[in-house]
Amino acid sequence: MWEKAVLTGISNLLFTPVTLLLMATLVWTLIQTGLLIRSGLQRLGGKAPARARFVDAMNEAAGAPARRDLDIVLESLVQRADAEAGRMLNSIRFAVRIGPSLGLMATLIPMSAALSGLARGDLPSLANNMVIAFSSTVVGIAVGVVAYMLTLVREAWVRSDLDAIRLHAERVLRASEAGA
Predict the structure, then answer these.
(1) Quick check: 8 and 1 in contact, CB under 8 A?
(2) How many Cβ atoms are within 10 Å of 174's Cβ, its own excluded?
(3) Cα separations (Å) of 67 from 74, 81, 127, 161, 180?
């Protein structure tokens, strides 16, 4: 019987941190949605800041006097662009998984209190805990769905940007070889 008390105690201790993390993930997802909208508007205006930053760095490297290791510098810039894109996508992919997981945890924890209320015949406690449980599920799934949609859009943009960066690196390298 002590196992039930220990597990219930641990579960109850986890409820507040899990709920706070779920809310923080929701806020982070909303912020990422705003950033995606801003980036989309910039792209509609013909601007891709990450792409432009690497293209400028490549042009600067090509303009340096007597550059013999330009191919290595360009490859390094392409790899850095790829790594930055991967880090950005991984943070969004993390939310795709963590949102529903936190929502499930925040659902199951009050369910035990709801079942205890049902056993005692305490219907107000049952109803209150069920509302918390179902609300947590909805929030967790919503975070996962929105983060997944953000991931799809960002991945398409990243592929496009990386293709353009690689193409520009090839152009710069060919131009430097033709000029040498």
Answers:
(1) no
(2) 10
(3) 11, 21, 72, 25, 10
* Torsion sign, CA atoms 129, 134, 109, 12: negative
Q: The pTM is what? A: 0.83
Residue 70 Cα distances to 52, 54, 76, angstroms: 19, 14, 10
Q: How many domains does the chain have?
A: 1
In total, the chain counts a number of residues equal to: 180
Sole residue written with tokens 């406690």:
125
Q: What is the DSSP track for 20-37?
A: HHHHHHHHHHHHHHHHHH
At residue 34, what are phi and psi to the nearest 5 degrees?
A: -60, -40
pLDDT (tens place) for every residue of the chain, 180 residues total? 788 788 888 888 999 999 999 999 999 999 999 999 999 999 999 888 888 999 999 998 888 776 678 888 999 999 999 999 999 999 899 999 999 999 999 999 999 888 888 888 888 888 998 999 999 999 999 999 999 999 999 999 999 999 999 999 999 989 888 776
Range of the domain at 30: 2-179
Pick from 100, 108, 128: nearest CA to 8: 108
| Amino acid occupying residue 152 | L
